[in-house]
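fold description:
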Amino acid sequence: MHPRILIVDDSDFTAIHLEGLIGGDYQIEHRAEGESGVAAALADPPKVILMDVEMPGMDGYTACRLLKKAPATQDVPVIFLSSHAETADRLAGYEAGGEDYITKPFDPDELSRKIGVVLRNHRKRRELIQNIDVATSTAMTAMSSVGDIGIIMRFLGEMVGCLDFPSVADCIMGAMNGFGLDVALQLRDDDESLSLSREGICSALEESVLHNMASCARIVDLGSRSAFNYPRVTIIVKDMPRDNPEHYGRIKDNLATLTESVDVHLHSLSRVKAALRRGDTMLALLQRSMATLKDIETRYRTQRAASSQILNALAFDIEDSFISLGLTEGQERRLQNTVRTAIDQAQAIYDQEVESDRLMRSFSQDLEAVLLKEAAAAALAPVATMPNAAPESSIELF
C-alpha cells in the first residue's frame, strides 16, 4: 500500500495539481482548512503532511505547532508550501516544527525528491532515536554525579584529540548528552561545512536555519530554542528549560563557554591545515629545486668533458698540420706554444671550477637532507591544542 499524504490547502486547484503530480506514488487526502487538517491528522496520522501557510482561520504555522504538541502526530513530517521565500518565513516554519519549506510555484521533481528525502530521514530518525534514547539514558546514569564543570572539563580534554569536523561534532554531541540537551549544530571554515542534529541527519530546513544563524547575534532566543553563534560554529538548543530560570541561565553560561572553546579549536585546526598546505608547497618547490640542481650538475660535467676533448683534439690537429703548412721550426714552436698555453689556461679555469663543483655538490646534499627531514615531518601531522583559557571579554554570561 502506498504511503498516505495529507494535503492541507484552501486551494482546490493546488490539491488537484499535487494529486496529479504524486498521486501515482502516494495515497492522497485533502483538507481545505487548518482546523479540519489537524483533526484529520490526529484521527489517522499520515506519513507526510503538505501544509499551506496562508489559509482562512487557522494558518499553517499554528496547525503545525498543534500537531507537534500532540503525541500522535509529533513525529509526522510537515513540509510547508508557500509563495513567500524570505528568511523570516523559513524561520517561522522552522520554529513551528516544519521539516522542509517549498516555495510556490514548486518544481515537480523537487517536490517528489523532498518527499522521498523526508520519508527516508523520518524512518532513519525513528531508528536512531530508539538507539540514542538507550545511550542517553546510560550516559545520564553514568554522569549523574558529575556537575556542569566536570562535563565541560571532560569535553575540553577530549576535544584536544579531535583533528577533523566529524570528531569535533561527536565530542560536542557527547557533552550535550551529558547536559541532557537536544541540539543541532554546524561547524564551518573556508574549506568545508558540517551540519548535524541529535538524530544524526539535519533536515533541509534545519540546515538552512543553521546557515542563516551564522550571521546573527552571539546568542539568539527562538521561542523554546536558543542559538549560540561564533564565526566557525553555531549550536541551536531545541529544548531550553524556560520554566526553570536557574537551569536556563546555567545552560546559557555553559553553552557560551563551550561554543567559544569549539570556535577557538576550529581556528587552531584551520591554522594547522594552512600550515600543512604551505609545507606541501615548500616541499614541492624543494623537490623541483633538487631536480634542477642535479640536472645542472650533470650538464656541467658533460660540457666540461666535451670541451676538454675538443681542445685536446684541436692541439693534435694543429701539430699534425705543421708539415703541410711549410712553417719554419721556430714558427712551429711558437704556434705550438701558443696552442698549449691556451689549453693550459682553459684547464686552469676548469681547475678553478672544481671548487664550484664541490660547493654545488655540498648544497645538493644539504638540500636532499632537508627534503628527507620534511618528508618525515609531513608524515606526522601536528596536533592542534586548546589554549589554556579563552578571553573573558568575549564570553556572554547570563
